[in-house]
Design a protein that fits this description.
Strand content of chain A: 15-25%
Radius of gyration of chain B: 28 Å
GO biological process, one term (chain A): GPI anchor biosynthetic process
Distance between the termini of chain A: 49 Å
Largest sheet of chain B: none
Number of helices of chain B: 4
Structural class of chain A: alpha/beta
Structural class of chain B: mainly alpha
Largest interface: A-B, 43 and 32 residues
Order of helices and strands of chain A: EHEHEHEHEEHEHHEEH
Order of helices and strands of chain B: HHHH
Pfam families (chain A): Glycos_transf_2
Shape of chain B: elongated
GO molecular function (chain A): dolichyl-phosphate beta-D-mannosyltransferase activity
Strand order of the largest sheet of chain A: 3-2-1-4-7-5-8
Helix content of chain A: 40-55%
Helix content of chain B: over 70%
Subunit structure (chain A): Component of the dolichol-phosphate mannose (DPM) synthase complex.
Oligomer: heterodimer
Bound molecules: guanosine-5'-diphosphate, magnesium ion
CATH topology of chain A: Spore Coat Polysaccharide Biosynthesis Protein SpsA, Chain A
Strand content of chain B: under 5%
Number of domains of chain A: 1
Shape of chain A: globular
Distance between the termini of chain B: 53 Å
Protein name (chain A): Dolichol-phosphate mannosyltransferase subunit 1
Radius of gyration of chain A: 18 Å
Largest sheet of chain A: 7 strands, mixed
Number of strands of chain B: 0
CATH architecture of chain A: Alpha-Beta Complex
Number of strands of chain A: 9
């Protein structure tokens, strides 16, 4: 009689980068430090950063091995949403983690994402800053006010079932991510919100784990502009399409 | 586009159980229900009419208060983590040390 061996989980960590030469090195070190006994790969999707991010990634491949660190660059800056789709095409794991390169998402939380998923069988585990054990560091009053206002508005109007809509530190079953990412059209912050709202509407099992968010130390933020207006547009869009 | 939406809404009503309503439809249904109750109150005049006329204003005001209160409470209890910033600094030092040894370029210019 043949005994089916339980298939081992593999986690593909997709990290989009644009001008993150220092951060990408630090985060890779921290991922290897905190992910000890799981099988994983890091997929760096770099959009032709002029600061030499890709050279650093190649150096990291020498240290950690090319099977652990995959560089999947694109010729020019094409935006975050498509960066995830691009990375996803090259993912060989049955789970996908999405995180930022800028160290706002600390790799020390990866084990708690994985543990939560294993315990609950959830399709998505999303990091939340707004529960016990979570938190934010480095925001001024204005930033906090907009964040709170945006959250109250979204909670009242959308009933999404998760406490942190715009966070982007998440673990997905690969098939689930493939399913929802194709129907998402928003960009910027709204992208993350649309992903989780669509997943929630489709009835996927979503769990949360607390994370802390320290504003980036090195490099500069690439999102910006009229965020509030974009956010409100996104909210209306989600109201009528989901 | 609008026509399409109308067709969709109609489909929603015909298979109310199986079809998922667009979220805006859910919210509108709630508003319509509330308005219907209000009109009912106006007509039956269980409560004095002058009071009933003011109800929508009470409703809007209390909604606004709820929003402001939630934002205010959220701001006051905003979870912060200053110690995490210190821990991150330590992690960064440690990572830089290791990576430099391995010949990875970690110079910050
Ligand atoms: N590949 C790629 N990565 C991007 C792009 N824009 C931002 N990123 C990366 O996405 C992550 C989050 O961006 P960031 O600027 O920190 O956004 P913020 O945290 O919302 O201010 C970082 O790892 C960036 O390097 C882009 O157009 N292409
Ligand atoms: Mg950031």
């Amino acid at each position: 009689m043949e005994q089916r061996k339980e298939e081992k989980n593999k986690y593909s960590i997709i990290i989009p980068t644009y001008n993150e030469r220092l951060n990408i090195a630090l985060i890779v070190y921290l991922i290897f430090k905190h992910l000890r006994d799981v099988e994983f790969e890091i997929i760096v999707v770099d959009d032709g950063s002029p600061d030499g991010t890709q050279e650093v990634v190649k150096q990291l491949q020498q240290v950690y091995g090319e099977d652990h660190i995959l560089l999947r660059p694109r010729p020019k800056k094409l935006g975050l949403g498509t960066a995830y789709i691009h990375g996803l095409k090259h993912a060989s794991g049955n789970f996908v983690v999405i995180m930022d390169a800028d160290l706002s998402h600390h790799p020390k939380y990866l084990p708690s994402f994985i543990k939560k998923q294993l315990e609950t069988g959830a399709s998505i585990v999303t990091g939340t800053r707004y529960v016990q054990g979570g938190g934010v560091h480095g925001w001024n009053l204005m930033r906090k006010l907009t964040s709170r206002g945006a959250n109250v508005l979204a909670q009242t109007l959308l009933w999404p079932g998760v406490s942190d809509l715009t966070g982007s530190f998440r673990l997905y079953k690969k098939s689930v991510l493939e399913d929802i990412i194709s129907s998402v059209v928003s960009k910027g912050y709204v992208f993350q919100m649309e992903m989780i709202v669509r997943a929630s509407r489709k009835g996927y099992h979503i769990e949360e784990v607390p994370i802390t968010f320290v504003d980036r130390v090195f490099g500069s933020s690439k999102l910006g502009g009229s965020e509030i207006v974009e956010y409100l547009k996104g909210l209306v869009y989600l109201l009528v399409t989901t | 586009m609008i026509l399409l939406n109308m067709i969709r809404t109609e489909q929603c009503f015909s298979h109310l159980i199986t079809c998922t309503m667009k979220h805006v439809v859910k919210i509108l249904s709630i508003l319509v229900t509330i308005s219907a109750i209000w009109v009912g109150l106006l007509q039956t005049s269980i409560v004095p009419r002058s009071h009933t006329w003011l109800l929508p204003i009470y409703f809007v005001v209390s909604l606004g208060c709820y929003g402001l209160l939630m934002v205010g409470v959220g701001l006051m209890q905003f979870p912060t983590c200053p110690q995490e910033a210190l821990l991150l600094q330590q992690d960064i030092m440690e990572a830089k040390e290791f990576l430099k040894q391995k010949g990875v370029d970690v110079s910050s210019d």
